[in-house]
Design a protein that fits this description.
The structure holds two protein chains of two kinds.
Chain A lengths: L8 H8 L19 E7 L28 E3 L6 E3 L2 E4 L4 E20 L5 E21 L10 E3 L1
Antiparallel strand pairs in A: 1-2, 1-5, 3-4, 4-7, 5-6
Chain B lengths: L2 E6 L2 E6 L4 E8 L3 E10 L2 E11 L3 E3 L9
Antiparallel strand pairs in B: 1-2, 3-4, 4-5
């Protein structure tokens, strides 16, 4: 027998389910599943890895079925392990109807609206403008190499 | 006849699809597969819809510490 040092795979999925708390002063707002939202941002905004929370600055304005703060992401699938990677991907897609955005947008911010709107991740895509149309965003496959969040 | 929702000269309305010029496009790279459809009327873009299919999300790596060295 030999021992092998490693971050335990179970820990990776546990983190995505808030089962560990290394902080000394951290207080979670409730113990149930959190609500996550996706907000769209203009290409001129400056979201990046330093983004800490949702902000309306640079966000696509109220239009059609899109309202400031974005759209609630259906969190139907709990984090799971794919090979050695903890993965999580929300529902397959969401669509905004009758949207009008004269300025190009190219960014989705996923954030936790239950926990003080804390930022989760920033995703960019090719710039889009929408005129009296719909914008549909389809999520990637929930596997180790493609999931929306991959923790390994 | 399929009706298309349009914005023309600041007014929102519907027009039959065959009275509009239809243009389609796509973007395919490692990050996304995106398609869009545009309708033009008298040289003006009056409708544009898009569908972005994300191919992959974000990866975060973890590395455990080591005792000694």
């Amino acid at each position: 027998m030999a021992n092998t040092q490693a971050i335990c795979n179970s820990f990776k999925t546990d983190i995505l389910q808030a089962l560990h708390n290394f902080g000394t002063t951290v207080t979670r707002a409730g113990t149930g599943a959190d609500t996550f939202k996706g907000a769209l941002y203009f290409a001129t905004a400056t979201l990046n890895k330093s983004t800490t929370a949702y902000s309306a600055t640079g966000e696509v304005g109220n239009s059609g079925s899109y309202t400031a703060g974005g759209i609630t992401i259906t969190n139907a699938t709990a984090p799971t392990l794919s090979t050695d990677t903890a993965v999580w991907t929300p529902s397959a897609s969401w669509t905004t109807g009758a949207l009008f955005s004269a300025a190009a947008f190219d960014t989705l911010l996923v954030y936790n609206s239950t926990q003080s709107n804390k930022a989760v991740a920033v995703y960019t895509f090719g710039s889009q403008t929408i005129v009296s149309g719909t914008f549909t965003l389809t999520m990637p496959a929930n596997s180790a190499a493609t999931a929306l969040i991959q923790l390994a | 006849m399929k009706q298309i929702e349009i914005l023309y000269k600041g007014r929102q309305s519907f027009m039959p699809e065959d009275e509009l010029e239809k243009r389609e496009g796509q973007l395919d790279n490692d990050n996304e597969y995106t398609t869009w459809v545009e309708y033009w009327y008298k040289g003006e873009l009056v409708h544009r819809s898009a569908q972005v299919n994300l191919k992959k999300g974000m990866f975060a790596g973890m590395e455990q510490g080591d005792f000694g060295g």
